[in-house]
Each structure stands twice: as structure tokens, then as C-alpha cells.
């Protein structure tokens, strides 16, 4: 996440592949709220339309929340 914040301030601009990596990192670390923020930021700030890969990672994160009965996050 620190590298993502550096990219936002110093460049280069993240692209759709960058966001796949960031969302994947959030998923592996259990950072659901951060993943939601990244997905929203990607769409609103960079105008990047989520692809199947983005949705697959997001769906996996929400599924993990349901599986672990963490309904507040997912």
C-alpha cells in the first residue's frame, strides 16, 4: 500500500494492472475496507473501468468475509 501511495504522489500513474496487484495484496492481507477504497478510487479518480480480474478479486474478498462470518466488512 505504501508503494501505491508513493505512485499517487510521485508517479507514474497506476494503470488497470497496477490496481489488480493492489487489490490482490489487499485480499491476501485481509484488508477489505482498503480494497473497497482502492476500487472506488480507481473508478472515480483514474476513470478506470473495472475488468473481470478486478471483480474476481473483490468477489473473493467478499466471499472470505461471508465464510468467516465477518458481515460488517463484506
From TrEMBL:
Keyword Repeat: yes
Keywords: Repeat
Record-linked Pfam families: PPR
Lineage top rank: taxon: Eukaryota
GO MF annotations in UniProt: RNA binding
Name listed for the protein in its UniProt record: Pentatricopeptide repeat-containing protein
One BP term from GO: RNA modification
